[in-house]
Design brief:
- With about 220 residues, the protein is mostly beta strands.
- The chain folds into two domains: about 100 residues, Rossmann fold (3-Layer(aba) Sandwich); about 90 residues, Sandwich (Tumour Suppressor Smad4), CATH 2.60.200.
- The strands form four sheets. A six-stranded antiparallel β-sheet has the order 7-6-17-14-9-10.
- The longest helix has 13 residues.
């Protein structure tokens, strides 16, 4: 395993003392790159990289890996201060405990979801409200209105889509989930707000597509 390169996007105070105590041979470099970094980090993306921050920061780094065609060569570890949708999805420790996984874990392939405007989704997307139709692969899962569609990567099918239902005082049907490779949504009557890993798209959209990317993300989380 190559030495660990740490990218600090959003500081995790509990992690800093542990980083200072690492032997020189285990740590390649520590770079403070700021929240949701862009192409300026491209020269730093090689070997094993530990992203310190939140899900939006991690998604920004994954986007750079995708755009530079390095998903297959970079092993990505993650450290966050508190549990997030991504850390819960893959049972990752938080705080200082994440450093042990970053150093000793093995990379596992996990699904990466893309959208049709050049972005990526690593943990949780949300479209709301939707007034129109939605298809998961060739199956129509919505015709009408819903408060929102929740989209998450799925390890086998690619993505899981949950159609939210309106509930009054706790009563009513719960959301129904559907598995597939792609989601296509049209909401011409009322443009949707799009959230991807906690980041709002810059304008409402009347159409949106999420789909599984052909290459997985190499996430460091395996047994050690």
């Amino acid at each position: 395993m190559s030495a660990l390169h740490v990218l600090i996007c959003t500081p995790v105070p509990a992690l800093l003392p542990a980083l200072d105590q690492l032997p020189a041979g285990q740590l390649a470099a520590v770079d403070t790159v700021g929240p949701r970094p862009g192409k300026e980090i491209d020269p730093l993306l090689s070997g094993r990289v530990l992203v310190v921050g939140d899900d939006a920061d991690l998604a920004a780094v994954v986007l750079r890996l995708f755009r530079k065609d390095r998903l297959g060569t970079v092993e990505l570890a993650y450290a966050t201060a508190q549990p997030t949708p991504f850390s819960r999805m893959y049972s990752l420790p938080v705080g200082a405990a994440a450093l042990r996984v970053a150093l000793q874990g093995e990379p596992d392939p996990v699904p990466l979801v893309r959208n049709d405007v050049g972005g990526v989704l690593i943990a949780e997307g949300y479209l709301s409200p939707v007034h129109g139709t939605a298809y998961v692969d060739e199956f129509r899962v919505l015709s009408g209105a819903t408060p929102g569609l929740l989209v998450q990567p799925h390890p086998e099918k690619g993505l899981e889509v949950t159609v939210r239902r309106t509930r009054i005082l706790g009563f009513g049907r719960k959301g129904r989930s559907h598995l597939g490779r792609a989601l296509q949504v049209g909401s011409a009557q009322s443009p949707m707000t799009v959230l991807s890993d906690g980041v709002r798209f810059d304008r409402p959209m009347d159409r949106w597509t999420f789909y599984r990317h052909t290459a997985p993300l190499r996430l460091v989380r395996g047994a050690f």
